User: Fold these one by one.
Assistant:
Number 1:
Amino acid sequence: MREPMIANTAAESTPRFHPAMLGMPPAVRPEPADSFEAIRKFGSVCRFGRNETIFNRGDSVRYAYRVVSGAVRLSRLTRDGQRRIAGFALPGDMFGFGFGANCSLTAEAVGETTLVRYLRAQVERACEDDPVLRRQLMTMLRQRLAEAEDHLIMLTGQSANERVAAFLLRLAGESPHDGMSVSVPMRRQDIADYLGLTTETVCRAISEFQRARIIAVPNRRAIAIRDVEALQDLAGDTE
Amino acid sequence: MREPMIANTAAESTPRFHPAMLGMPPAVRPEPADSFEAIRKFGSVCRFGRNETIFNRGDSVRYAYRVVSGAVRLSRLTRDGQRRIAGFALPGDMFGFGFGANCSLTAEAVGETTLVRYLRAQVERACEDDPVLRRQLMTMLRQRLAEAEDHLIMLTGQSANERVAAFLLRLAGESPHDGMSVSVPMRRQDIADYLGLTTETVCRAISEFQRARIIAVPNRRAIAIRDVEALQDLAGDTE
DNA sequence: CGGGGCATTGATTCGGATCAAGGATGGTGG
DNA sequence: CCACCATCCTTGATCCGAATCAATGCCCCG
């Protein structure tokens, strides 16, 4: 469990900056706090509706984004039409900074989503003069790389139940505790595409956990964790 | 087919620098050429024997490396003892620069391997004064990220044959052609761990390709590509 | 020339995909 | 406010691909 996903319960109310500024799939845990102060002034707010496209794979890169509320799906289509989701950006996460000249992924709003966007050119210019900002960006990129690795390792050789359990724990954030309610902004299909499974298999895993009284499912967009430890056991060895 | 692996036939004779300087799994295709001139002078040569450890996951980070000859396996052990290989570094590739304070992966020599190593502290210092070097490192990190993404996407939802075919093509490098001989420095088990398969399945795929006259297998450490196009068809949709 | 690690092949098992129905939910218009 | 409809979710039955289990063969190295 290393890949981060901001604890989505509280995230909307704490739109502070953190080093997760460059990469692209999910996000990066904040360092202390007010990093990236330097680029704060560049930001402008924008909104996207359910399933609306923020940018397409191949688009030229204009902006990097930070999620204020909602969630963003970062995906790619294979030639035969399957969709693979490389990551989600949740409130507090940043994305779009890991691209070169063109976006390597498509970004879509999962539901109603509010973002702050930054002109990349401006950020890059600021970087030239600011060693601290530079180091933050570099650190963030490195973390992203480590996360991608973790995701990768989780997907090769974890069972369906392990993947789903690990995913729920990621949604729960850094300090999961019994009884906590986790918001699940994305559809089952999105989860499946992210975990390399099918919708049915994700459902079955969730149902199974529910039968085992490890979680409760009050509704489609929320899950309550009843036994964190059991869930962690199920998630097994992301190491 | 986006994740790079230097064409290993010619690589040993062209130990030039390229932007693949920061990330960690395989490597990054060179930009034109003599990038990283700036850190060349920091390098010192070192050698490792078959299966020797270069650094362990969790070690504090001292050096970054460039492969001169041989091959390096970048892996991690899961809690239950399984090994996952995040990538290979082949001649010309660099690794060890994508880590933060501690290595997130273990690096081992696959066979007899010669490396050049760079004190990271020195490189970082050089970065402060050299915007060009900085940009190169940044670009490299971004590419690494994109590669990790590609690997990730390949592993979720590709069949065993597709993965093996794609892997062989990666070993073959950028311009594969009929009749070319590809060196396969790693064992079947390594390939399996990298692709998220078992040794047996990798073998079966290779045997199958051989029966279909798409490749020939003169010995364990080499494969001849007889029909690139067929192999690409098999590799399917890395997109 | 013998031995030990790899590689290969075959038989069987098992997990998750696929195919096929239902059942819940939320959004819309009457 | 309710009924309807589309979309999403859930569950069940079956199938298939890769893992697992089990030999055997092949090199390479001492």
Number 2:
Amino acid sequence: MDSRAKKATLQTVADEVGVSRTTVSNAYGRPDQLNKALRERIFEAARRLGYPGPDAAARSLRRGRAGAIGLVFTETLSYAFADPYSVGFLRGVAEVAEESGTGLLLIPMPPGTGGSETAVRDAVVDGFCLYCVPVGHPAKELIRARGLPLVTTDESDDPGIPYVGIDERASARLAGEHIARLGHRRVAVMVDHVSGPGMSGPASVEEQLATDCSDLRGRLTGYRDALEEVGVDWRSVRVVAAGRNSRSAAAAASAHFLDVADRPTAVLAIGDVLALGVLDACEQRGLAVGRDISVAGFDDVPEAERARLTTVRQPMGEKGRIAGRLILQPPEEGKTPHIELPTELVVRATTGPVPH
Amino acid sequence: MDSRAKKATLQTVADEVGVSRTTVSNAYGRPDQLNKALRERIFEAARRLGYPGPDAAARSLRRGRAGAIGLVFTETLSYAFADPYSVGFLRGVAEVAEESGTGLLLIPMPPGTGGSETAVRDAVVDGFCLYCVPVGHPAKELIRARGLPLVTTDESDDPGIPYVGIDERASARLAGEHIARLGHRRVAVMVDHVSGPGMSGPASVEEQLATDCSDLRGRLTGYRDALEEVGVDWRSVRVVAAGRNSRSAAAAASAHFLDVADRPTAVLAIGDVLALGVLDACEQRGLAVGRDISVAGFDDVPEAERARLTTVRQPMGEKGRIAGRLILQPPEEGKTPHIELPTELVVRATTGPVPH
DNA sequence: TTGAAAGCGATACCAC
DNA sequence: GTGGTATCGCTTTCAA
């Protein structure tokens, strides 16, 4: 066996077999362009020479196709994986990607970013999907500049970027109206964060509006619409930030409204993960959820059903699939789809009438 | 504003500004190599010309670095995302990737593969991590041929490939011994699948050995070790396949041992997700888990704690981090690390002594 | 079928 | 700081 050359290339193999580069290239990329025996001979030589097969970057450069979709997150990836809602969305994108033999390139873009500019620029992809990237995030301009197919989810700001999501405001209103109809007037709201991640505790109305996440703003506004309609002063609604979108953080932050004199009779959480945390906190305090206090979530993640959580269902998987397709088969130039998927209130056991 | 040329390239920009390509290249990749004013002028021209920035594929080709780790799954991605254990592992890999501004390229490789050969070959990555890719999977040779840094998890066959995982057999034995010590002799085992996915129901000893997943085999052997040590005939142990690694599938398949005359007093599940399903099934039937019947899992996923599930904890996050590092900083040639992480039996409330 | 030539778009090295 | 020059490794006409 030859000592494998430091660098085997298409040319090397071609020389070895005594054919041209084209033929070797065809052996890999177009099996039907040459007879089987020759193809085998080529592969055999490749093996002998330690030729690793066509270089992916070179091939991608030459063909102008990457075979991957870029998924940009503003949070750390570990964070994104932690929420069943995200996971549901990812599964959707993955499904359509798989169908076309396309990979998914996850690009982390945590807050204290800067170096991650590189990650976006160096991403060898055929298009980008922005997942909860807030308005005005620096990455957005960078990505857009790359001129690849692009779709945003949940964060619907830039009119020039295709969008798929839900009507956040109207959907949240569904939950708010449900609570209002049950007679609740003393209400608390649990959010993950308002101004910048990490900050936890009660948030003033100004802080609530200051957030750059349009989905969060939409949901808050939806709750507000419903509550104000029945005469609730929004300023009386305690909006509490958990600091992170996690069950335990929500459980901890629940103290801000659970351990006070004028405890609310209902809690609206802007996500199921947070709602589950509130449930935990209630349980700890021996509160009978659905009787002593009502809790509603948002998303309808798998765990929600098990917990009998009242929530607003949004089709996360479908959202992902549509986003994926929008990238793989971009719409004609000039058309900028803005797709809003239907949502639905799912009433389970965690909400009930106001206790006397 | 100029009508942006159909194709703007580094050269175009260089010509426009009146500098060389090098300078433009530096403007993007090495800001310190030219003065700020010029750099701005270049960017400005780029914007005007609609130049999308250095082409990722070209750059990757030239620099010989991809800026991404390839993660290969044998199951569909959607499947991988669904299991909290996988998610924990992914988070680990993601963590170290993030630290170095590296992306994660998810490469699906479902059973009925073929087209996905392409996905591996075209993956522009600096290394691969094989996640639960069984022995002898065709992808393995293909990936290995690419000559990039490579690491396997959980499936430890090929001696030439770096590995990180746990001692499956010894770890499973921990659970088995715990059950044996509690006096259980009539035991059932729940697995996801034995020979090929989708098949559910009881599996013969031959079928159990036929699986190509070394981790599964290891765990079964561990249970067997423990049980045979106290005189249990392994053939009397009902091994049932759920067909898929899902909670609901496990709940359904539990009927195979729950709804029979000689119901086992203990159930060992080779994963927590399955164990949770068994728990669901027991609850449905009004069985008091921990008293009427004992259930133990494996992995210690977050839900396990909430369910008070007795299980074997393995450090999934750590596993992922180590795998990631192994790819980013590959060990010296010739050294093939085989890392086994510690595990630990976590006794909670779902196991108890044999009922009289 | 096969081969020769022409890029794909960018970066590294080295003098200037 | 700057600008030539030489690749990086492959695919793709187009003719033979």
